[in-house]
TrEMBL record:
This is PatA-like N-terminal domain-containing protein. Residues 372-386 have a biased composition (Pro residues). Residues 4-161 form the PatA-like N-terminal domain. Transmembrane segments: none annotated. Pfam families: DUF4388. It comes from the Bacteria. It comes from Geothrix rubra. Residues 355-395 are annotated as: Disordered.
């Protein structure tokens, strides 16, 4: 039996805690408007997470490109291979040797927690829990996440998020580097290796910014919205937004008027047509050739007589069949024709039905025979013999 209801009546903290305590297995579906989030539980632990707004496969590729583990061309090549093989992106990346198993596990963990932490900010919505798990869960690379880990981080985010949200404009607001930021020399430009290794520090360098702030600022080399940056940032959404708020207050980012420009990423073919595969279009000779291949067998191999070498197509022709019944069948047919037409033995009827009899009907006309059911004529008694004359009487 499914468990369902409203998040106003049963909040996510209570829901997750109940699933953990009872050690449930199943799928929790959370919905708010057009957004759906699925959380998969096994023995009360989280073994998978997905969202219809941000696919896990897309986040995985995005994060690996941002970490410098892949280039845009390499990821696009992997996407093409995935469409042909239908394998998971993580499996293809491991087989190619471009990432390690640890890199993949960390990326999947960060993706799942990012989706969950954003979902915990929902104040309304619906939930439904079914005790069924999809068979295609990535159990090999997704390390189960304890529910307590998610709840503790979600509680911290809920405490800090209102203040960060107050310091930020709309998530759809487009931001760009200010002239001061463009003239700034960042420490990460001097030490790229530390960025790729994920080493963060709170110490301020010559730029006066923390390492985290410099990384977030580098995302705005091209103007884009805050929402777009949180989708590709290697940091948690809360930490990314805090860094953006600090950069706005320091005058290193400035809002742009009008609509947010379209985000151009190297692995998106719309942004870089040179990476896109050539569009396939059928040749002008395709359909004439198809018609020719269909017409040739019909013209050359469909037989006009039974002696064709193509026995398969010859079987479509009308068959010349002569049915020869056995002896018992012939006798039954003769009786049927005689009973149907006693006068001529059914000869005319047999001719009309296409079952002509050879000669006369061998069954005798029963009407010429005496009726065995007719009563026998009465027997006339024989006259009694005359009495013999005696001698005395004769005298």
């Amino acid at each position: 039996m499914a468990l369902e209801g409203s998040l106003r009546d049963f909040d996510l903290f209570s829901l997750f805690n109940m699933i953990k305590i009872q050690g449930k297995n199943g799928t929790l579906v959370l919905s708010q408007g057009q957004e759906f989030v699925k959380v998969f539980f096994e023995n009360g632990e989280i073994v998978g997470c997905d969202s219809n707004q941000v696919r896990m496969e897309d986040r995985l590729g995005t994060m690996l490109v941002r970490l410098g583990r892949l280039t845009g061309e390499e990821l696009l090549s992997m996407v093409q291979v995935q469409r042909q093989t239908l394998k998971r992106m993580g499996t293809l990346l491991l087989e190619s040797g471009k990432v390690t198993a640890t890199d993949l596990q960390d990326a999947l963990f960060n993706q799942a927690t990012a989706i969950l932490h954003r979902t915990f900010r929902w104040v309304e919505g619906d939930y439904r829990f079914d005790s069924m798990l999809p068979p295609d869960l990535d159990r090999e690379h997704f390390v189960p996440i304890p529910v307590d880990t998610v709840l503790m981080e979600a509680a911290r985010i809920q405490d800090e998020w209102p203040e960060v949200e107050r310091r930020l404009p709309s998530m759809d607001q487009a931001l760009a580097k200010s002239p001061r930021a463009q003239a700034l020399h960042l420490d990460i430009d001097r030490d790229v290796s530390s960025v790729l290794d994920g080493k963060t520090t709170v110490q301020h360098g010559s730029s006066g910014l923390t390492h985290e702030q410099e990384v977030v600022l580098s995302y705005f080399d091209h103007p884009q919205s805050i929402k777009d940056v949180t989708q590709v940032s290697r940091y948690e959404e809360l930490d990314t937004c805090k860094a953006i708020a600090d950069l706005l207050e320091n005058g290193l980012l400035e809002p742009l008027s009008g609509e947010a420009p379209k985000v151009v990423r190297p692995w998106v073919t719309d942004g870089h047509p040179e990476y896109a595969p050539e569009a396939w279009e059928p040749s002008l000779l395709l359909w004439p050739l198809v018609a020719l291949f269909l017409a040739v067998p019909l013209l050359l191999y469909v037989p006009h007589r039974r002696g064709s070498v193509n026995l398969g197509l010859a079987s479509l022709q009308p068959a010349d069949v002569h049915v020869v019944p056995d002896g018992a069948t012939r006798v039954r047919q003769a009786w049927a024709f005689r009973m149907a037409s006693p006068r001529d033995g059914g000869l005319e009827l047999a001719q009309r039905l296409g079952r002509p009899l050879e000669g006369r009907n061998p069954v005798e006309d029963l009407s010429l025979l005496p009726d065995p059911m007719a009563p026998a004529p009465p027997q006339v008694p024989a006259p009694a013999p005359a009495p013999a004359k005696t001698g005395a009487h004769a005298r």
